[in-house]
């Protein structure tokens, strides 16, 4: 059986869980709730990058990203940040939906699965 490493865990959740081959990230959101979609997306991707590094991998190994947007009005601006973040030649699968997020000030939440 493969050991599971839990990163930044508390009584309710882990921000990431990793096995020998896969890394699962909990939903990542911006810290600055007053920022626009561009800044919030950049902050969320920075958290993704940090958690992937803590798990011993990086964005070039991302397999899938689920993107939750607060508003479809943010879709194009989000995609501009996405296009700058994604590793050329290593584009992951992605799904994008408009949802009601837990905090109405959050514009985007990212859920990531990566490999080692």
Automatic annotation (TrEMBL):
SUPFAM superfamilies: YjgF-like. InterPro entries: RutC-like_sf, YjgF/YER057c/UK114, YoaB-like. It comes from the Bacteria. This is Enamine deaminase RidA (YjgF/YER057c/UK114 family). Pfam families: Ribonuc_L-PSP.
């Amino acid at each position: 059986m493969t050991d599971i490493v839990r990163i930044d865990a508390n009584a309710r959740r882990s921000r990431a869980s990793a096995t020998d081959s896969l890394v699962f990230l909990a939903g990542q959101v911006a810290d600055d709730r007053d920022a626009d979609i561009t800044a919030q997306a950049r902050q969320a991707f920075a958290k993704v990058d940090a958690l992937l590094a803590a798990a011993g991998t990086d964005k070039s190994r991302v397999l899938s990203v689920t993107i939750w947007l607060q508003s479809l009005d943010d879709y194009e601006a989000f995609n501009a940040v996405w296009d700058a973040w994604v590793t050329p030649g290593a584009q992951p699968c992605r799904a994008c939906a408009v949802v009601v997020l837990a905090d109405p000030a959050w514009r985007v939440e990212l859920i990531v699965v990566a490999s080692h």
